[in-house]
From TrEMBL:
Protein task: Catalyzes the conversion of epoxyqueuosine (oQ) to queuosine (Q), which is a hypermodified base found in the wobble positions of tRNA(Asp), tRNA(Asn), tRNA(His) and tRNA(Tyr).
Similarity-based family: Belongs to the QueG family.
Record domain 4Fe-4S ferredoxin-type: where: 175-207
Entries under InterPro entries matching the protein: 4Fe4S_Fe-S-bd, 4Fe4S_Fe_S_CS, QueG, QueG_DUF1730
Entry protein name: Epoxyqueuosine reductase
Localisation per UniProt entry: Cytoplasm
UniProt gene name: queG
Domain of life per record: Bacteria
EC class: oxidoreductase
GO molecular function, one term: metal ion binding
Quaternary organization: Monomer.
Gene3D superfamilies listed in its UniProt record: 3.30.70.20
GO cellular component: cytoplasm
EC identifiers of the protein: 1.17.99.6
Amino acid sequence: MSIDIKHKWTNSIKTEAKRLGFLSCGVSKADFLEEEAPRLEKWLNNNMNGEMSYMANHFDKRLDPRKLVEGSKSVISLLLNYYPEETQTEDSYKISKYAYGQDYHHVIKTKLRQLQEFISEEIGEVNGRAFVDSAPVLDKAWAAKSGLGWIGKHSNLLTQRVGSFYFIAELIVDLELEYDHAVTDHCGTCTACIDACPTQAIVEPYVVDGSKCISYFTIELKNELPNEMKGSFDDWMFGCDVCQDVCPWNRFSKPHNEPLFNPNPDLLSMTKKDWEEVTEEVFRKVFQKSAVKRTKYSGLTRNIDFLK
């Protein structure tokens, strides 16, 4: 296949991604993630996945997209901004900004389907699968490989232009495209995220112990919250944004323009007292289509009781 054709196809895919509202789009060769393999193995061996046993499943597929999508040649990585225009009132228990609006899985899946349709119409029969944080795909590694940013010391993808408040998604396709290159790391000597983490979950630069992270405790952990963690959750009742909030690169974050990510107005004005008295009915109304539904009413009230 000629370089010109690959260039043309790649450009038209990136242009369409932008039209669909994606922040940016990068492409890398569907290959074995050599650098990630020992890192992932060490992380799992140190039980940093806590009770997230699913993280240990499909080890080979996590590292090689060709085992996930037959005949795949390219990983198209996409970023979608979720940084909100307004945040919760000061006197409130906090939820992670990514969960303010509708569940991102559905919002992004729709956009990915549209991008897939565009590729089929523009280029022809292209087989592939869309992924939004719901399969054994190392999203951040692929986004970094595709030149969309670098992995910061808090283990999130970072860009100089807009920081880190965005979702990552992929299309893995059996189409050869023009590949991008990784960018350089711009964390320098900064340790703001490591110093600010309320539970010291960033155990060394670029390594987060998932089993110590507030997001893990408030979303993933289904049992009782450990007593020794009491007082260290910094008022977070669903997820945690501390490492992103303190990151100097996030001063460049700009509000998203996706109406489906706008929060229910009640969410922003609810105080601690409101949350402590929250009923199942209010929970359903405020989080009607939100990712917060994942923790259920019982999970959220468990978290709030723990913060009191």
